[in-house]
Each structure stands twice: as structure tokens, then as C-alpha cells.
Amino acid sequence: MKETYKAVKKVFDVLCWILVGLLVVFMLLSLNARLNNSIPSIFGYSVYRVSSGSMEPELSVNDVILSKEVDDVMELKVGDIITYKGSGNTSGMLITHEVIVAPVEEDGVVKLQTQGIA
After folding, report:
1. In sequence order, what DSSP letters do the residues of 73-110 get, joined into one string?
2. Beta partners for 115?
3. Has 52 been annotated as catalytic?
4. What Cα–Cα distance (Å) separates residue 31 from each residue in 37, 72, 82, 109?
5. Backbone angles phi, psi at 43, to 5 degrees
6. Is the backbone of residue 61 left (phi > 0), alpha (psi -120 to 50) or beta?
7. Residue 4 to residue 9: CA distance in whole angstroms
8. Which of 40, 51, 60, 99 could be joined to 33 by an S-S link, Cβ 3.0–4.6 Å?
């Protein structure tokens, strides 16, 4: 019984240290991204918090979402929910909306249309 307890405790300790290590790495990556004015990501995945009701009822205010970078924007399709950097009056903001018109390329520029669900 005592040996089993020691083995379980060692496994638990190792898992805790791995978790602490991952949290430290994530914090350092986040700090680096903030200092470089970019979006923190790990293996192409980023975590965001929804701050407006434009996507309700699909996404509620304060929901946490996990977003994956896409390799080819042309692969997006109607109904996909994407997060992107705004332009114009939303410049500098991150927007999460649903794609309502599939991407098309015009004069070397990819264009698509999105909107909130609400």
C-alpha cells in the first residue's frame, strides 16, 4: 500500500511540474507577443475572450474561444467563424464574426464578407 502511494505521488508530482512548466512557457510567449504588439499563439492556436454580444446566441460575452490560424484563406467557407484584425473604424481591434460570403481574389487581394450573428 505504501509503495502504491509513493508511486502515485511521484506521478502526480511530475504532472504538476509539467503543468507549471507549460504555464510558464505560455506566460513568456504571451508577454513576448504583447511586447511585440502581436497575438500570442502556440502551434498556430490562439485563445480569445468574446467582449461583445455580436455573435449571440452562438458565442456569449466572456466566452473563451480557441482559434487556429488558417494556411490558405481561400479554404474558408460560408458559415465558418473567424477572428481577424479589423480595418477602417475597427482598426487595431480583433473581430470574431461568421463568414457570409466566401473568399474571392480580386487584383491579388483576397476579399470576404463577415457579420455578427446577433
Report:
1. GGG--TT-EEEEE--GGGTT-EEEEEEEEEEEEETTEE
2. 98
3. yes
4. 10, 28, 24, 32
5. 55, 35
6. beta
7. 8
8. 40
- If one counts every other C-beta atom within 10 angstroms of the C-beta of residue 97, the result is 19
Per-residue pLDDT of the chain (118 residues; tens, 9 = 90+): 788 888 899 999 999 999 999 889 888 877 887 787 777 777 888 888 898 888 888 889 999 898 898 888 899 999 999 998 888 888 878 889 999 998 998 888 888 889 888 7
Look-up of cell digits 506566460: 27
* Interatomic CA distance for residues 36 and 49, integer angstroms: 20
Length of the chain: 118
Which of 38, 51, 52, 87 does the annotation list as catalytic?
Answer: 52
Residue type, 4: T
